[in-house]
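Ticket #4471: structure export looks truncated?
Reporter: QA, pipeline team
Priority: medium

Steps to reproduce: submit the single chain below to the structure queue and open the exported record.
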Amino acid sequence: MADKRDYYEVLGLQKGASDSEIKSAFRKQAMKYHPDRNPGDKEAEEKFKEVNEAYSVLSDPEKKDRYDRFGFAGVDPNAGFGGGGSGFNTSSFDDMFGDIFNMFGGGGGFGGFGRQSANPNAPKKGQDMQARVTISFDEAFFGTKKKIKLKKQVKCPDCGGTGVGQGGAKKVCPVCQGSGQTRTQRQTPFGMMANVTTCSRCGGTGQVIDRPCPKCSGTGTVRKEVIIEVSIPAGIDDQAVVSVRGQGGPGKNGGPDGDLFVIVTVRPHKLFKRYGLDLELEYPITFTQAALGAEVTIPTMDGRVRYKVPAGTQPGTTFRLRGKGVRSPNSGSIGDLFVRVQLEVPSNLTQRQIELLQEFDSNSTDEMYKKKKSFFESVKEIFTGDDKAEAPSEKGKKRKKRK
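Actual output as written to the record:
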């Protein structure tokens, strides 16, 4: 893990960031490095995976707590936390010094000293995988289950993942004698150089199979199309990530299977727009409803509600319906629905309707239109000036006349 960046750094945050800050930062970074926006860019693809990994930890309260206290070791299943282990990650130690020793002959020693590689037969977690799924706005609001088709490596059904065929067995490698490494020495001006490399015959395992499984050719895995059901929680937002434990690549040497990270894309709604946990709705009303007030039916995501629009409602007025927004999948808190009034002006009027409106307008006064009155009073002040204050030029003229 030595090459990993701090998860808070990956998302551009400080330690102690809130859930909303973490979500906002994730969405920003995910959009920036999204494969669809960076086709063929391998660096962006790696950044995108890094962002997803950071979010999968920091968005989970339990994982976040362990990470805040213990760092990467707290969220590494092989580190020993919660399983009686020591908590010291030896692979981090190996990785940290690996690059230094690789400078001297691909992992060899210098001056007769060699580096002991990690145990190739130790249990290893399988590779994490990534998939995408697109759901409707309603499915995101209420939650849903989706089946995802995925091609991946799975344990060979014939040999159970051992790679050994019927009647076969694993034996000590005749080349490295079970060490998993081969050692060569050569004389240099600096002394004797020892170079230790992974055994090419057994691949570092120290064992060979005398009769490999014919189905998987001794690898222990086969590629297969599988269908995985993913539970998507209610309230999930666009580009959020759902992690499915144990549905990644198969583990090695008895290690756990990897995880599957599903990126969720939410299609927009015809009526509602989402802002965090809040929803916004633009609702058209007539001039009569706005002027006289009316009881209207407001659609919400979980049914219709009656609402009394007060008399004299102005265009653009926003009403708040509490608890009619989105429920957070993490905290359970619920947002609100904001209804923005749109005044719709009628068209294709009949002659009688035109006459009635003209009659109404002729009987109207400026006092009925507060904004109109205020506007024209401001216009008058700008172009005519304040009656109580004289312009400097006028004062100058009066002084000249007195002289």
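Status: closed, not a bug. The export was complete when the record was re-opened. Leaving a note from the reviewer for reference: The CA atoms of residues 104 and 110 lie 7 Å apart.
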